[in-house]
Fold this protein.
Amino acid sequence: MSRVFFISDLHFGHKNLASAIRKMSVEDNDNLIISNWNKTVNKKDTVYVLGDLTMENHKLIEPLISQLNGNITIIGGNHDNKRCCRELCRLGIITMGALEYKGFICTHIPVHRMEVSGKYRGNIHGHIHTRDIDYGNLYFNVCCELINYTPILFDKLVELFLKKQNDSDCSTLQ
């Protein structure tokens, strides 16, 4: 049975981000993500990468993506430039600007609350590499640093969204 996963901001090959934010070498960063991905994702699973596969380096895409299990769809991020998108298309990988999936809007950068509230169950996004910013119970950040460098199962995301909303509802009652 195939499953659906989400992750964002892999930034394969990005030396500065790997060392400054993730406190590891670029090789360790790339190997950790690939290893965690392949331990979690099966060949028939689907993974939505919500942006920033690399740091604008289209030459890394084929050698790295060929190592990853599953069917991959890319939601473009601010570092997925034209050359990267062309390379993804050449490889037959679907690339789009946003995705509606089972009532959620899936984007790279979090969308404005007015675009989410009343229209979607929530916004699954990336782009924010820290827990310091919390947009509230309608948002879930799948930036890889925040999900242990491992694609997260959609069913787990729904569970976490419901918990976040229930916790929020309880706090307003007190």
The chain has one domain: 4-173. The mean pLDDT is 92.
